[in-house]
TrEMBL record:
The lineage of its organism: Eukaryota, Fungi, Dikarya, Basidiomycota, Agaricomycotina. Its main location: membrane. This is Glutathione transferase. It comes from the Eukaryota. PANTHER family: BLR7753 PROTEIN (PTHR35371:SF1), INNER MEMBRANE PROTEIN (PTHR35371). It is found in: Membrane. InterPro entries: MAPEG-like_dom_sf, Membr-assoc_MAPEG. Keywords: Membrane, Transmembrane, Transmembrane helix.
Amino acid sequence: MTLTLSSPLSLYSIPIVWILAYHPQVIKGNLIKKTIGYDNVNARTNVKRVADSDKVSREVVARVQRAEGAHLNGLEALPMWGLGILAGNFAGLDHWTLNVVSLAFILTRFTYNQVYINYNTLGKGFFRSLVWAAGSLMPLYLVVKAANKLAAQ
């Protein structure tokens, strides 16, 4: 079987986007582990423990906090993404459209994570917001396109 952009692949984007939502969590955990040690018994206190520690540089604290923010944003984006893909498939949108939008969304989520975690300037924060906005419109586009197709039937 040859895979092309016309193959039914878009549903695979849902677990990929889930992985992208958790990738910042791995980065955050590794930073905490290297600095003060990860407390898996009280895992939700780790970011505060890092922030309160005198042993951790402000730069590392900020990176841990940005990784936490990227993780939470990924979790916030995931339901709407899943809804967009499921609605598009339910309505019978063409696979090419679903796949191209899926690839674009995956790229925006990857870029968003990288920019959010690694850059700490106002200009790059603005770029992060643009990437977020572009990505946020993609599942909405799929839902509206699916709704329009179903309304036309």
